[in-house]
Amino acid sequence: MAHTPVLLANAEVKDEYLVAGMRMLKNGAHAGDVAEFVARAVEDDPEEHTVGYGGFPNVLGEVELDASFMDGTTLQAGAVAALKGFRHPISIAREVMRRLPHVMLVGEGAARFAREIGAEPREMLSPEARRAWEEQVAAMMGEAPDTIALTWHVWRRTRGHDTMNVIVRDVHGNLCTAVSTSGIAWKYPGRVGDSPLIGAGNYCDSRYGAATCMGLGEAAMRIAAAAQVVTLLRLGWSLVAAGVEVTRQMAALLGRSRAEQPMRVADWVRVLIMDAQGNVGAFATRADLCYKVLTAEAETPITQRAMCVSKD
Ligand code: GLY
Asked: Which of 40, 125, 156, 196 counts the most CB atoms within 10 A of its CB?
């Protein structure tokens, strides 16, 4: 039986990437190939300062990339974290899944693997991202005694962390997810967020549904947000009930710890959900956050506002 293909992504993903992805799906492409295609397009986009090339660097001016890929039909997954110097972290994550008996590689191990498989190296710090780091961080370096102090100093003015989330359902009913990010701008070197952690920022099971997270990764990590959503769907909760429950748990964490209190711009989370039937929704702790959905019948993606959920 043919299923209706659906693409769900965060609103920052350009329409043209989703339209091209839908064309692939209508031609019978596997959900995983389309998820990877969309993620690669965003990773190459220099205007997107939270993903791939052009992403804002860590506090020392180095771009460290996190990405994960999950196949909801096989429950196979691959991830890389704190990877430096490669153009497409999402493809390296997928190759970890394909070529190793592991799920996740970090730092130099991830870079070694990327070199061994012939992944394309690239200087990921764009001139614009370098200028922003020089103005907002490097200029402060003299005022901080060490990197911990510098991280706290610039944390208050962090520029957010949109991340790239895409969930794809293909004509066979397979669900796949891809998440890619440069993480929170000006993060402490080696900081890893929720995006590459299977269960926190990404989880996918074609029998029940898929969820991916954006925003303050520390909140998603602390409640295993994406896995929780899919577990609730498995237990028969509706998509809305699962989204509200998990977002409420994250909302309750925001602003509580020392690490989160000073956040002004970046103190939010959003979760995207698709169930096994291709129904979609998004839930966020801020009222102005949107997502995009593209179905087979539509010519262009529809932008919708995520349901705003507070901790009470
Ligand atoms: N959600 C992306 C991050 O926190 O790195």
From this structure: 196
Q: Is 163 a catalytic residue?
A: yes
Predicted pLDDT at 20: 98
Model pTM? 0.95
Q: List CB contacts of 36: < 8 A, sequence separation 6 or more.
A: 69, 90, 91, 94, 178
Burial (Cβ within 10 Å: 0-12, 13-18, ≥19) of residue 28: exposed
Measured between alpha carbons, how far is 289 from 268 in angstroms, rounded to an integer? 10
Residue with tokens 């039986």: 1
As averages over each run of 10 residues, the pLDDT of the chain (312 residues) reads 93 96 98 98 92 95 98 98 98 98 98 98 96 92 91 75 91 98 95 97 98 95 98 98 97 66 66 98 93 96 95 77
pLDDT at position 137, please? 93
Where are the extended beta strands (E) located within 118-163? none
Beta strands 164-169 and 175-181 are antiparallel
Domains parsed from the chain with CATH numbers: 6-308 (3.60.20.30)
Contact 150, 133 (CB under 8 A): no
For ligand 1, mutation pick of 64, 155, 212, 214 (most atoms within 8 Å of CB): 214
CA distance 81 to 76: 17
Q: Does the C-beta of 215 come closer than 6 Å to ligand 1?
A: yes
